[in-house]
Amino acid sequence: MNTRLENRKVVETLLGPAIEEVAVSPEVVITISEGPIDLAWVKALEELDKRSVMVNRTSQTPNRSLAVSDLRPLLNDLTNKAIERIRDYFVSQIKALRSPSINAQIIQQQSFIRYKELYGFLARHHPVLGEEIAQAYINTMRWYYSSNFTRYKHSLEKLSLFVVDRNDAIGADQTAHRAPANKPSQTSHDALAIGRRADVLRQSHQAALPSHIAEDSKHTHYVETPFLHFNLALIDNATAEYSFIANFFSPAVGFQTISRHFSAIFSQTFSLGHAFTKSLVEGSDDCLGILLCVRLNQHFAFELQRRKIPVADGYINGTNMLLWPRFQLAMDVHAESIKRATSAISTRGAASALGLSNGADAASKQSTAPHMLTQRFGQFLQGILTLSRDAGDDEPVGNSLGRLRGEFEAFLTKVGKGFGSAGERKRERFLANNYSLILTIMGDTGGKLAADTREHFESLRDGVGGI
Predict the structure, then answer these.
(1) pTM
(2) How far apart are CA 273 and CA 252, in angstroms?
(3) How does pLDDT run across 264-273, given as a tens digit for each residue?
């Protein structure tokens, strides 16, 4: 008896660890087959996965036992049951994402990320089904973002916006631009002064404007306001979605696949964003507003880099391609308006143009006070320079501003001829006063472009004897 007992103990010692490696407890079988999908179910799934790996490895050895062969069908059946339940679970969660007024990020965190091991198991044991689940998720989230941002776009389109067109150009005849008698004029505003509009750049890290507030707003805004809030919402949602995809689908799929998933989800929403931007700036001559949109877009690019979200680069670049050409066209409108004002001087006489300075009587026609167009040019120049403190040399702002400055200087030269040959000293004083006013308006505006512009006008002022 003792000998038999010892022999059994020896056999148990030898076979115990091997059996323990491949054996599946009844609790695991019941949990996988009938239990609710919760953290205990995830733990049972991990146990099943570990046993399956051990059985597969053991079955490939020369000394495999019959027990291992007998266990394989059970493990296969249990694995198939797990795959079936995982499929049903994710299908139900994807359907939940289509529920009205649902917050997708809550479902993503509580129902997907919390059980991400389920998708990893599915991708390993049934790759085709794993891809189908991924595609179903992609299709649903494409619809989710497209529909929600379409509604948000419609809300922002209800904001009242200032209309800035060629009638607001620097050289436009302000006395000729009047609202029709049967139509009320829009809220008074100065389209050429930056004022507090640059404050919007400090709002690029705030939350987007809620839809109901946008719809009920009674204020009138500039073009940069709806641009800011649409893109704030877009960038935040893109960040959340990319972070979710990278977390949930890895390590089952690589970076390239994750990028393709994101692009498939957000392509329609990005196209919607580009269409919205185009609708905001197309036909607008609001240089300051468009340049503010450019600066906001640059802020978004830096923020995406900080968040390590490389998949939105195409959207940022596409937005730049919409904004910069429109900015240059709007700058050309200002330059052409000054050019027309210069041409008009030659038809009515340069001396009469001096009457536009500060008075309408005969004495004021020979005034050396700055021309009223100089005030408008100086305000506009200061706004552009304020928004170009950190501008790079590769930006088109410098070239557009150079042409505008050239047209303005040609205008002043024409007006200065109104003093005639006998009034050379007055002409010089007139030019010096205009250049000084520009320098005063510029103030201490910083940046390389501002420094170069300041040096240029100081040279012009000193060249005519100004101090």
Answers:
(1) 0.86
(2) 31
(3) 999 999 999 9
